[in-house]
Amino acid sequence: MSIKIRVPTPLQVLTKNQSEIESAGEDIKGLIDNLETQYPGIKQRLCDESGKIRRFINFFVNEQDIRFLQGDRTKLNDGDIVSIIPAIAGGEHQNKRVKELTDSQIERYSRQIILPEVGGAGQLKLLSAKVLIIGCGGLGSPCAYYLASAGIGKIGLVDGDKVELNNLQRQIIHFTKDVGKLKVESAKEKLKAINPDIDVVTYPLRVNSQNILDIIKDYDIVVDGSDNFPTRYLVNDACIMAKKPFSHAGILRFEGQAITIIPNEGPCYRCLFPDPPPPGMVPSCSQAGILGGVAGILGEIQATEVLKFILGKGELLLGKLLVFNALKMDFRKLNIQRNPGCPICGNKPTITELIDYELFCSARKE
Question: What's the rounded Cα separation, in Å, for the pair 290 and 299?
């Protein structure tokens, strides 16, 4: 019999820095005894003097919490995966105390805590993170759901519109009863229902050159879920000026695009699209249509990029444009270069203050 054990960071000092090991045992109790033989001292970390599993240690068998099975008498089979999840505290300074995860938080976030790339330290990062979502529509809806579910501590919602019946086909955060309600209030209600512990701040307005810098200054990363070119260029320029990373996505019909932009580390939206298309050349979703699932996929990609950024794990879509075609079920990644002559992030920027973006976009001609 072979059982795979996922070892949390605090115990890896006893397992020779291995995050995954193998052992055997008819049940959890037997497994712990065998682990003690292989890695002396580990049982003392896992069990108290009476041999019971310590109250700040949880065991999961194939992602099932043994507290809701047969405890340490939970039977094991060949090929099972056992995850050991302790309460973990972390901080930027060894003398700075950081609140440990509660039992409720460990249970709520257990499926991502068991990921070696997340763990308890990563979960604490998410709980202290602040994310601003601009637009509570087709992109912002699924993005907000997943960020709230993941435990982002503070989520800001920006949208000045009210819920309309035609929104419900893709803007999944709004329900039929919400028609006529402010989108930010409708969205806040759902996010708090998913995760009452998070802080949700609403901004029932449309961002413009006068207010955006003040709004984004308190957030770690911005999600651009807007549906118009003036807002997209405004968000780009404001984030570059404020040195705020942001995730951008766009959707139309059966297609979507996504890119993550970090000032001074890669290209920006203007490097990709120096100028907006002339008015009328690119139809809006209300004119050309959108498959709801496409909005969901791109919004979830944005949420994933945000989580990876906060955790500092994986490869971001930095300098990469992800292009999705639903009809072909095809994903492509295109390399995007930073433009040294870019007017906002180039070597000699010519845009030093925010402009009238409605005028900028409407003035473009073929």
Answer: 14
Same domain, 267 and 327: yes
Q: Is residue 119 part of a domain?
A: no
Residue 265's SS3 state is: coil
- Same-domain status, 10 and 137: no
76 and 159 together in one domain: no
CA dist., res. 307 & res. 153, Å (int): 12
Report how far residue 350's alpha carbon sits from residue 208's, in angstroms, rounded to the nearest whole number: 20
For residue range 145-155, list pLDDT tens digits in order: 999 999 999 99
Q: How confident is the model at residue 94 (pLDDT cuts 50, 70, 90)?
A: very low
Strand partners, 75: 27
Strand, helix or coil for residue 133: strand
Instruction: Choose among 167, 156, 349, 321: nearest CA to 240.
Output: 349
Amino acid at residue number 244 = K
CATH number at residue 322: 3.40.50.720
Q: What is the DSSP letter of 66?
A: G
In terms of domains, do 155 and 250 share one?
yes
CA–CA separation, 252 and 246 (whole Å)? 20
Question: What's the whole-model pTM score?
Answer: 0.72
| CA 158 – CA 27 distance, rounded (Å) | 51
Mean pLDDT of 45-58: 91
Q: Are residues 135 and 218 in the same domain?
A: yes
Q: Mark whether 222 and 299 lie in a shared domain.
A: yes
Residue 52 DSSP one-character state: P
Q: Please answer whether residues 190 and 236 qualify as being in contact, where contact means their C-beta atoms are separated by less than 8 angstroms.
A: no
CB burial readout 332-350, b (16+ within 10 A) else e: eeeebebbeebebbbeeee
> Could you tell me the CA-to-CA distances from 41 to 10, 19, 32, 60, 160 in Å, in that order?
13, 17, 11, 21, 58
% of residues, the chain, pLDDT over 90 = 78
Give the whole-angstrom CA distance, residue 122 versus residue 310: 8
Whether 91 and 136 map to the same domain: the answer is: no
Structurally, the chain folds into a number of domains equal to: 2
CB 131 within 8 A of CB 147: yes
Domain that holds residue 14: 3-101
CA-CA distance, 362 to 147, in Å (whole number)? 34
CATH number of the domain where residue 95 is located: 3.10.20.30
Q: Determine, yes or no, domain membership for 111.
A: no
